[in-house]
Specification:
Elements lengths: L7 E5 L2 E4 H22 L8 H21 L1 H6 L1 H16 L19 H30 L9 H36 L4 H32 L4
Length: about 230
């Protein structure tokens, strides 16, 4: 039986492929190609424009992680935090592409709860993996009963709520912003949608920043000293 969806563009082995999935594939392809091109022939002297752009992007992300969790942890967890930030930011900005939100066009992956939930699950398991790696099994599990044992249920509930909170926050904000702009385009087709899209340039970046900041805080808490 095919798993159908009203927004499916086509089907693969009975599974409906939506605009969000197609856009996700496109984003991954573009980012991979860009990374390969930038790192193909790195020059210390007279770097090309793409290399300069790549170095500026990495430098900015590195400074961000340093400000959030310090130089040591910032460099250690930069691959995960940087990847999350870039993917979410680019995903959000696809909402500004022509035909975005329509079945025949692009749809921001972050307007799908499945995508934001997948990102939150990655953060959830990464946080605990880094915690076990930094403290060892016994040391990491110990912080769930510190300072007293009866804190265990509350701390476990907090850990389970985190991915739900991360996914719903990102999904709700991006979906709401995207829906508002699309509806305003129908109501007031001249002027107002342009203003909203200009504001969306900042909004898309802020949502990626918030998700990355919360992830960094969770990782810092799981790998830091228990209090």
């Amino acid at each position: 039986m095919a798993i159908a969806s009203s927004n499916s563009l086509f089907y693969i082995f009975g599974l409906g492929v939506t605009s969000q999935v197609v856009t996700t594939w496109g984003i991954i392809l573009v980012l991979v190609i860009f990374s390969l091109v930038v790192t193909h022939n790195i020059k210390e002297e007279n770097p090309g424009r793409l290399q300069i752009v790549g170095e500026m992007a990495v430098g900015g992300l590195r400074n961000l992680t340093h400000d959030l969790i310090g130089p040591v942890k910032g460099d250690r967890y930069l691959p995960l935090l940087g990847t999350l930030f870039v993917f979410i930011a680019v995903s959000n900005y696809t909402s500004l592409l022509p035909l975005s939100g329509r079945v025949t066009g692009f749809a921001p992956p972050t307007t799908s709860l499945s995508v934001t939930a997948a990102l939150a699950i990655v953060v959830f398991f990464s946080t605990h993996f880094f915690g076990f790696k930094a403290k060892g099994i016994k040391g990491y599990l110990k912080h769930f009963v510190s300072p007293v044992f009866f804190m265990l249920p509350l701390l476990l509930m907090e850990e389970l709520v985190r991915p739900l909170s991360l996914s719903l926050r990102l999904y709700g904000n991006v979906y709401g912003e995207h829906a508002v702009i699309e509806q305003l385009g129908h109501i007031v087709p001249i002027g107002l949608p342009l203003v909203m899209e200009i504001l969306a340039l900042l909004f898309c970046l802020i949502q990626a920043l918030v998700f990355t900041m919360l992830t960094a805080i969770y990782i810092d808490g799981s790998t830091g000293e228990s209090h």
